[in-house]
Write a structure and sequence with these properties.
83% of the residues lie in helices and 0% in strands. It starts with a helix and ends with a helix. The chain has one domain. The protein has 3 helices and no strands.
Length: 72
């Protein structure tokens, strides 16, 4: 099992805010693993949404570049 410090660092490195980290870590320390897993899942969804948004930006830039190369 990871130490409290390792779990905290892992959550922060994964993009969780300080408040999210505190809540998730609190659940883990209290043995509320189902609740912690639910919160981790919600954080994961937020991170995935950021990826999708970044991909849309990249797609738009690629399209603009393509259009410029075509001379439009």
């Amino acid at each position: 099992m990871q130490t409290e410090k390792e779990i905290r660092e892992n959550l922060i490195d994964a993009g969780c805010s300080n408040s999210e980290t505190d809540v998730i870590l609190g659940c883990i320390l209290q043995g509320k693993t189902k609740e912690a897993d639910k919160l981790i899942g919600e954080s994961r969804k937020k991170q995935l949404q950021k990826i999708h948004e970044s991909q849309q930006c990249i797609d738009r830039l690629d399209y603009l570049s393509y259009q410029m190369k075509r001379g439009n």
